[in-house]
Design brief:
- The structure is a homodimer.
- The radius of gyration of chain A is 21 Å and the shape is globular.
- The first copy, chain A, has 12 helices and 9 strands.
- With about 300 residues, chain A is an alpha/beta fold.
- In chain A, strand 4, helix 2 and strand 5 form a beta-alpha-beta unit.
- Helices cover about 45% and strands about 20% of the residues of chain A.
- In chain A, the strands form 2 sheets. Chain A has a 5-stranded mixed sheet, with helices on both faces. Chain A has a 4-stranded mixed sheet with strand order 8-7-6-9, sandwiched between helices.
- At the A-B interface, helix 4, helix 6 and helix 9 of A face helix 4, helix 6 and helix 9 of B.
Amino acid sequence: MPSNSDNKTFFLGIDGGGSKCKAIIVDENNTILGTGISGPANPLHGFEQAINSITESAELALKDAGLTSTQLQDITAGVGLAGVNLPILFEQMSNWQHPFKQMFLATDLLIACLGAHNGEDGAVMITGTGSCGFSYVDGHPYTLGGHGFPHGDKGSGAWFGFQAANYALMSLDGLKAPSRINEKLLALLDVNDGLSMVETIAGKPAAFYAKMANLVFDTAEEGDQVAKAIVEEGAGYISGVARQLEKQQPPRISLIGGLTPRIKPWLDKDIQEKLQEPLCPPEMGAVIFAKQQLALQ
Amino acid sequence: MPSNSDNKTFFLGIDGGGSKCKAIIVDENNTILGTGISGPANPLHGFEQAINSITESAELALKDAGLTSTQLQDITAGVGLAGVNLPILFEQMSNWQHPFKQMFLATDLLIACLGAHNGEDGAVMITGTGSCGFSYVDGHPYTLGGHGFPHGDKGSGAWFGFQAANYALMSLDGLKAPSRINEKLLALLDVNDGLSMVETIAGKPAAFYAKMANLVFDTAEEGDQVAKAIVEEGAGYISGVARQLEKQQPPRISLIGGLTPRIKPWLDKDIQEKLQEPLCPPEMGAVIFAKQQLALQ
């Protein structure tokens, strides 16, 4: 085993998603010494790209920490990745000749949940570009939704944007009542009519639609009935996810993801009251996961 | 100009869509002498493929008619194509060094409408894989919907299938009430659970979802409340399209496309009563268009 002249034990935590990969390096007390960020790391969209992003973010974190005499091969890594819920990708990533001392692989959902509850049992609802529910209680992982865009992921940023575009196109045809969504969406997309809107949105991925989500919440908060109905339907789904997760009896439940501040006020009041702030980010959840797995060895 | 030893004037009518291209050859009285069918002819999905399909279907129709001494260059063609509502594709197709004596190019919507009303003014609602409304009154074409999948085309086969898959995934998660749609969809897709369903449907095009549409109507007709709600929403949209088209005061209105027999009984009663049988198929509409354009020369 190579010497570690920094003379301490460090851990890497990796949170790899579809658009970026975050890394942290921590000491034995989980004090963050450095961070790194790189590109997409979902192996579903390319194995080579994923492993390159993971390695790059880890190297950047190491450099940021100023640990000049420490190498990746000296460090145990917890790696949480989108996509590895699919068994074939989990196996492929597990077989990677990784540069770390040891690698513990988990889904992005598990590390998010472990992070939010600092390694204890709990549940999370994630609403960002996509949406998903997940609980981890007594070693039992349970996933709800997260089926992807456009056929699933209700209550996600992409879903809100999609509903808005869908409505606006019918409304501009005179087939639905006017909504302030229409003018705002035309302005955001920099187009003049429905036909140009179609040319702009056709075939676009979830991330494109997710950029329209704030507009829907803004319009709902101004009192527009159409926007309110869309927001209430999406938030109602997330409240439903929370209720379903509660059946697993998680000690804590948190809402995380980029849409959190927008959607939280629209959830059912009793759900809002039960929500607890996430304690740590997913990349720290990855560190916690690695330490838990080490303790089991 | 080459001689035409069959000593008669013939016309070709072409209806080119995203999955197939139909051709008919007719005499001066629009008596059908032969038919041909070939592959996809929407230039949006490939110019070369489109022109090859058009030529192939025309050659097949000529052969079917037994007109051995007549060539494509002896015949005037009316060509109605999906995709040429986009100006750039209309121009590209217009510049095609086509094999016909003369070619008159129109959208698939216009030839469908001209066919349905035998060249007279009127309106059509089309519900097949996609959905669209179109009227042609006093030389004025008017299009409603037809925005494409998945962001538009409500009330189309693809839309019904998409709604069913969407519902089933949430219902199998326990987030919506059970529906007979669930079991039927799992059986149709030959999968056992929601996760396998997602793997099967993710990224699929409109034509894939359209194959699930009959299942939704079957289930609605058995009295399933969820399926009924989906069918009523989709049919309600098509009724709305009809009402909007009526503002153009078309003398006749018809419902055409593969979903016609399923959706017609679910339209608003007053709309059902106003529907008139289409008089001719779209490929005959293409012939009528060519003859109308010739008369204007």
